[in-house]
């Protein structure tokens, strides 16, 4: 129990993570780029959940946006700027935005909230297996998800004794992003014979938040796709 902030809490994974933390008794704040989006997600989760507008693609605005937050026990950063970009059709504007969200915005959120961390507070950053399994169009996503491991390692010392870890989900089959897509090629590659689920990502996130010995690590929740 404590105060949980889910940056990207309107998303396919962020919202169920926020709902889970609220259901177990945390005081929860969810963020979106817009006030309306954040407040709608907060209302969907339930009474007492707060919605806040935070745009990680504009890092210079983050400190003011997070001013209403006074204390933090659990900080989960799921936000992403979706982009498909190959080298041949490299979208410079989308690449700068997407990298800014994960590689600058995530850091700035941690910097701003660091002094409001309560004892035993911890942070979970969201990457993804595109880090190790590039696909056509994943150039930007593969690059910034690969950067998050280094980010966790450099921040672990600087936020000590608080902890920071990265979770790399595989393709989450029942998330809004993938549930209408039949026969994803990772099913055939997966030793568990299916894609991972939202519930498994929520559970792994809670594990990283709770377990007081894990720090500066990258946890893959992908059903073993990377072993095949
Ligand atoms: N779903 C999967 O299968 C999967 C697989 C591997 C990795 N992942 C990773 O898991 C994380 C969550 O994925 P998801 O499926 O939940 O994504 P999603 O449904 O697209 O949600 C993305 C979230 O990011 C927020 N966001 C977008 N741009 C933002 C910005 N500039 N500043 C602040 N927030 C912003 C969105 O809020 P608004 O649109 O309301 O502003 C939304 O809450 C991502 O980092 C993704 O890379 C997901």
From TrEMBL:
Keywords: Oxidoreductase. It comes from the Bacteria. GO terms for molecular function: oxidoreductase activity. Transmembrane segments: none annotated. Pfam families: adh_short_C2 (PF13561). Belongs to the short-chain dehydrogenases/reductases (SDR) family. PANTHER family: DIHYDROANTICAPSIN 7-DEHYDROGENASE. This is NAD(P)-dependent dehydrogenase, short-chain alcohol dehydrogenase family. It comes from Asanoa ishikariensis.
């Amino acid at each position: 129990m404590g105060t949980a902030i889910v940056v990207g809490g309107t998303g396919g994974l962020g919202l169920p993570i926020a709902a889970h933390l609220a259901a177990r008794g945390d005081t929860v704040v969810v963020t979106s780029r817009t006030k309306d989006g954040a407040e709608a997600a907060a209302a969907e989760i339930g009474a007492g959940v707060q919605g806040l507008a935070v745009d990680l693609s504009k890092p210079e605005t983050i400190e003011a946006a997070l001013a209403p937050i006074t204390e933090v026990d659990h900080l989960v950063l799921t936000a992403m700027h979706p982009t498909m970009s190959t080298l041949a059709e490299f979208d410079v504007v989308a690449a700068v935005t997407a990298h800014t969200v994960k590689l600058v915005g995530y850091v700035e959120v941690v910097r701003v909230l660091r002094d409001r961390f309560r004892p035993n507070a911890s942070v979970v950053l969201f990457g993804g297996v595109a880090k190790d399994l590039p696909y056509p169009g994943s150039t930007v996503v593969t690059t910034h998800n690969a950067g998050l491991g280094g980010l966790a390692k450099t921040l672990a010392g600087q936020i000590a004794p608080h902890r920071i870890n990265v979770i790399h989900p595989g393709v989450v089959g029942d998330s809004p992003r993938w549930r209408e897509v039949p026969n994803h090629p990772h099913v055939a590659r997966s030793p568990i014979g299916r894609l991972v689920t939202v519930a498994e990502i929520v559970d792994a996130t809670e594990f990283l938040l709770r377990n007081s010995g894990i720090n500066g690590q990258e946890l893959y929740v992908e059903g073993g796709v990377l072993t095949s």
